[in-house]
Amino acid sequence: MPVIEYKLHLVTHKGAMATPLWVEDGGYWSSPIDHTKVGWAKPESTREYYLPDTVTELTKSSFLTRQLAIHAVHPFMSDYMNLTDSGNAPIIQLDSAEVTTMSNNWYDNFTASKS
């Protein structure tokens, strides 16, 4: 269950939020729809703790589905992930094919960096 979708945890009575301690590398791809984020947790075979049942594993396919669902409501723009060549390039809305390419590339690079 390495690539996961999770939410921040409440850590004080005043509303301070923090990444759960079991997230090894997180804070990616925040969703304005449900306030989830994407991160990495150790595979079950290598950890000595359990992850809450509410944590969702994201396969490449489910990650792409998540990203396209976000894009349908809150479109990704060409400046997201620095896709424009210079500061003078116009910022435009990505189409679904561009979001698919961007998401698949990110997932592949992220998982490769963890192996």
What is the compact description of this entry?
This protein is an alpha+beta fold.
The ordered string of helix (H) and strand (E) elements is: EEEEEEHH
Estimate what percentage of residues fall within beta strands.
15-25%
Beta-strand segment tally? 6
Helical fraction equals: 25-40%
Q: Oligomer, anyone?
A: single chain
Going by helix content, strand content and strand pairing, the class is: alpha+beta
Mean pLDDT: 88
Radius of gyration: 16 Å
Q: State the end-to-end distance.
A: 13 Å
Taking the sheet with the most strands, its summary is: 4 strands, antiparallel
Q: Per the principal axes of the C-alpha atoms, what is the gross shape? A: globular
Domains counted in the coordinates: how many? Answer: 1
Strands of the widest sheet, in order across it, are 4-5-1-6
Uncertain residue ranges: none
